[in-house]
Amino acid sequence: MTYCLGIILPAGLVLASDSRSNAGVDQITVVEKLTLFTQPGERLIAILGAGNLATTQAVITTLRQGLDAPPDPDIRTLFNVRTLFDAAELVGDTLRVATSRSTPYVEEASASFLVSGQIKGEAHRLFRIFPEGNFVEASERAQFFQLGETKYGKPILDRALARATTLDETAKLALLSFDATMRSNVAVGPPIDMLRYTADSFAPGQRDKFDEDNSYWRDLTGHYSEGLVRLVESLPPPP
Q1: Cβ-count burial of 178 within 10 angstroms (0-12 exposed, 13-18 middle, 19+ buried)?
Q2: What is the DSSP code (8-state) at residue 79?
Q3: How far apart, in whole angstroms, are the C-alpha atoms of residue 167 and residue 9?
Q4: Please, are residues 50 and 56 in contact by the beta-carbon 8 Å criterion?
Q5: Hey, what domains does the chain have and what are their CATH numbers?
Q6: Rounded distance, CA 11 to CA 163, Å?
Q7: Measured between alpha carbons, how far is 65 from 71 in angstroms, rounded to an integer?
């Protein structure tokens, strides 16, 4: 299991993922699930993957190899697509190919992705790619997408996230969403990789990694837990 989160705001994007990959209780590994493709001043495309690890790695590797090939205007790559919609379509098409190669031999080869970022000439955008390769785009009414273990980390986002929320405040909500998920599901684990992208910067911006020993992570989750306990104690009892 995994947990990936993408949030879009007028101010930019907040993206985060855990790092745990497991194929049983005795086969747990740490894998980075947030990949960046950047051309400074021109475009930044961030991809978060969840699902079958072999499939997600095949998709990312194929996309990277496309960038290493000699330039060919007839071959789509993440560095020559015109819009982020086109980038999402490219990821979906690449996912279909990777899945079709594995499906005859692997019982469960499905994967899904979040594709986000900004290409010069348009606003920053966020897409969710389904295992079938089709996709949907985030909007003012649907500000965030989740992949993997979604249910535990969703309530705090539903309650506290607003269109006017700043990137830093959103980053706190994202981390608390991960804290709630990790407390309820051991299949999601640290470190947490997070990117705060400022609109129109076309640069990676603030990228952080939070593990269990990170002082900010300990302070944030500790104060949040203590505050919840105090809040519940202050509420009146049922009549």
Answers
A1: buried
A2: T
A3: 8
A4: yes
A5: 3-211 (3.60.20.10)
A6: 9
A7: 12
Mean pLDDT computed over every residue of the chain:
92
Model pTM?
0.92
**Helix-then-strand count for the chain, H and E:** 5, 12
Q: Average pLDDT of 45-53?
A: 95
* Contacts of residue 15, Cβ cutoff 8 Å, sequence gap at least 6: 5, 6, 7, 34, 46, 48, 114, 116, 194, 195, 197
How far apart are the C-alpha atoms of 199 and 8, rounded to whole Å? 10
Looking at residue 23, the DSSP 8-state letter turns out to be S
- What gap in Å lies between CA 169 and CA 167, rounded to an integer? 6
Give the burial class of 219: count Cβ atoms within 10 A of its Cβ; 0-12 exposed, 13-18 middle, 19 or more buried. Answer: exposed
What average pLDDT does the segment 171-195 reach?
93
Q: For residue 116, which of 97, 129, 102 has the smallest C-alpha distance?
A: 129
Closest CA to 9 of 180, 173, 177, 192: 173
